Structures are given as C-alpha cells and as structure tokens.
Amino acid sequence: MAYKQFILVCGGTGCESSKADDIFRELHAQADAQGVGDEVQIVKTGCFGFCEKGPIVKVLPAESFYVEVKPGDAKEIISEQIIKGREVNRLLYKDDHKKDRLKVEDIDFYQKQYRIVLRNCGIINPENIDEYRPLRRCFFP
Ligand code: FES
Questions:
Q1: Alpha carbon of 1 to ligand 1 centroid (Å)
Q2: Domain that holds residue 47
Q3: 111 lies in a domain?
Q4: 110 CA distance to ligand 1 centroid (A)?
C-alpha cells in the first residue's frame, strides 16, 4: 500500500514515559474513526533527540514538527492535518526568538548536532528494511 502521509510518533524512553504509547494508539483509533486509517501510516520511531519537548510527533511529507503532544491531540491531528491538510498550529515547535513555524533543521537545538545512527529514523523501518518511505530524512537534508 502506498501511503501519502506518515505520522511518526517518538518511541524513545523520554516520550514513552510521557504517554507516547497512548498517543500512538489514539492516533490509530482516530484515523480509523475518521475513515482515513488506510490513508496514513502511523509508526513509532527512535528518539528524535529533543526529549525535553516530548512527546514528539512528526507528520510527513508536510514536515510538521509537533511538541509536547498529548493523547487528546490525536483527534485534531487527524481531522485537521491528515484530512484537511492544515497544520495544528498550537502544537508546532517555535523558538522564543523565531516566531514562525520552523523546519526541524532550522531549530537551534539541532544546529550543532550531526545525527548518524538515527539519521533515517522514521524513514527506514528497522523491523522491515525493505519498507522504505521515499521521503526526506527526519533531520538533515
Ligand atoms: S525520547 Fe522522544 S525525543 Fe527523545
């Protein structure tokens, strides 16, 4: 099945301890309830490296980077972004001095990082290496 949109839910320890598993389940439940369960692939990934802002959820190909997500946000992520194509603005990460929406690679926190092992997190499924999502990598072009 060729999905057009992907929701990556951080499954790292920090985010898991802040209900990422509940977010993952609720996103699936909402996608099914809103009739788009077959149109969006929802996967867990490794740590995005920004644990203090977790739980992290990223939507591709829009590159929406949501922080401090709660299970109750799943309904809006599905209805607004997946169905209507509008980002959930209140969940987007914003630096204090950069008020606009930021791409992940523009976030100050990531400027001095060079990810190697988790460079393709969310793009390659470690449990099925043949399943490759032909989208941009999570972090750096
Ligand atoms: S555990 Fe989610 S960003 Fe690190």
A1: 28
A2: 5-132
A3: yes
A4: 13
Quick one: which atom of ligand 1 is closest to the CA of 55? 2
pTM, two decimals, is: 0.86
Probe target for ligand 1 pocket from 8, 15, 23, 93, with the most ligand atoms within 8 Å of CB = 15
Q: How many domains are contained in the chain?
A: 1
Beta strands at 5-10 and 40-45: parallel, antiparallel or unpaired: parallel
Q: What is the 3-state secondary structure (H, E, C) of 37-93?
A: CCCEEEEEECCCCCHHHCCCEEEECCCEEECCCCHHHHHHHHHHHHHCCCCCHHHEC
CATH of the domain at 114: 3.40.30.10
Atom index in ligand 1 nearest the CA of residue 53 equals: 3
CA of 108 to the centre of ligand 1 (A): 17
Would you state the pLDDT for residue 119?
Answer: 74
* Inside any domain, residue 139: no
Would residue 137 count as lying in a domain?
Answer: no
Torsion angles phi and psi, residue 45, rounded to 5: -125, 180
Lowest-confidence segment of 71-75, 88-92, 100-104, 110-114 by average pLDDT:
100-104
For 59-75, the pLDDT digits (tens) are 988 989 999 999 999 99
Question: Is 141's pLDDT higher than 50?
Answer: no
Confidence at residue 131, expressed as pLDDT on a 0 to 100 scale: 66
Domain assignment of residue 141, yes or no: no
